[in-house]
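Researcher: Checking consistency across runs. Here is Protein-lysine N-methyltransferase SMYD4 again:
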Amino acid sequence: MEGKCNLTLLSDVTDGCGFFFHSDFGLLSKHISKQLAVDDVDRALKYGYPLQQKYKILIRKGECLRNQGCMQDATIALKLALDSLSESTLTTAEIKVKSEKIANLLRSCSSESVREEKATASSCGFDPHPSIANASRQISLQYSTEKGRYLVAETVIQAGDVIISEKPFAVVLLPDHYDTHCHYCCDRALAPVMCSHCIHVQYCSEVCKDAAWEDYHEVECPMWEVLQEIDSLGHLGVRIILSAGIHKETMISSFSKSLPTTSNGIPGCRADGIYQADYGAVYSLQTHIDNQTQENLFQASMTGLLLSICVHIRLGKDNSVHWDALCNDTEVCALAGLISRHILQLRCNVHAITAVHPQGHADDPGRKVETTEQVRVASAVYPTVSLMNHGCDPNVIASFNGSDVTIRATRNIKNGEEICHSYGPHKNHMPVAERLRKLKEQYFFDCTCSACHMTEKEPSDWSMFKCSNCDQPATLLDSDLVCTNQQCLHKESAKEKLKLKEKADNLFKEGVRCCDKEDVEKSLQLLQQSLHIHEMVLFKHHRTIAEVRDCLARCYALQVHLALFCLLYKPESSTRKQIKKAKRVITKALPLLSRYYGNQHESVQELLEMQACLLSL
């Protein structure tokens, strides 16, 4: 945490400390986050903000909450502000002015509250399943000896429909993001709140800090340095135990025997047949113990034993530190067995929480267009999401809001069709042989999905040329291109197409250089030429075509940025055409992004803000 100054590290706060939290309020409310500004107000009040000026920050809190659409909370804050006026040093005339301002704000909250309720009701497009926690009523849970547990569509599911919305049973932030993200919800910690007992972890709010302490950090806090010596799977394994409260059981050795037996024959379901996504569901996840290497089994066993001893000592169940005594303790061994079980399960059932982060120096003021990449932020276990089997051509997509995951359909799914998501290997990103190898190595199964079955002996579409006869993929064999379409099998010389591809590649490289120099017009010209030639010789799903289009999109974004600048400072210029073009692009992009990621996704919100900006010009 070098270079950070965080006032929440202070345990003994004087009355004047409230000023420090309030001093950040203006910056947060104007430039970063209104919710963080509200949190700072709450901390200022908690740590003794002067009563005479209390009305000021309560008014600001009410304004922020109103702007967020939280009318009920805004009304409460504003009424408290009205009551606080009597404690101020204002004159009678000044109190009257402030009272009128608060009254106007209260009236606006009242008129907006009805609209807020309607919007909340209409935004809920998720009809919960009566017997599958966190899942839509549109799906059902099935089981077979070949497939294990899997989900199928109970009715026709439309593209964009939410199938699963789930909070993690347990989650562990990855070390690279300790200083930037919340250790509880995995959201960005823009105004970090430190643990009151250590300097190792931070949170985005007091709420997350208190929840983490209650769930697991009270036990983890003094053993944090030990946790940093093991991998994230070991850490997540013990956090599952702590989050479930298993360490509080008086007889851990008999705990697993007390788990209910399901009535429907599907592992993880309760006695009444309901899949609750509780600890019983996590416990039922496959360990694949027969397929694990001896090294993995030994490492999981030793890690489980080490962590169980640490937890045992931390809870004060045994003050003895004698290794032999602890290793032979029945309860320690039982806890070690559970942790080891979860570590083995996580090798096949862990989910990566991802976020879109800017590449390079995001704070560079000279950057007009930001290039982003998907980054793994945390590891988590989701019992309901784990019910889905793998498909190399999945029909769903996952998006994250902090650590909360939402699974949406990417295309229309027929009644009775299996719901599949990608465990990593995807038909558009990896050849068949490599997909089969990776799935076998990590998940211990031979993939028989349609994408692997139909193209088992064929090269991948994204690395192939285009057949001149039927436009289908053609593979390079020696000096010839041979069509993979069994109805065509056209054969032609590769010489001319290889020469054209080299020319197109050079145009692409030059176009990228011009784009980096912000020579937009020349870059667009070169990239469009490159795209035209690439589309002539390469199959439509070829990776290079996607890369050229991505760079074109970057250029168009840069062009819009420059057009906005010209419109603001040179309104007589001809840039209004570019603004109209940008409006059309946003209008087309919004429904697509909303369908797959939801209206609250960061990318959708950014587009809405850009659209509002353009409409105001």
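Researcher: Does this match what you'd expect to see?
Model: One thing to look at in this run: Confidence is low (pLDDT under 50) at residues 1-32, 114-124, 361-366.
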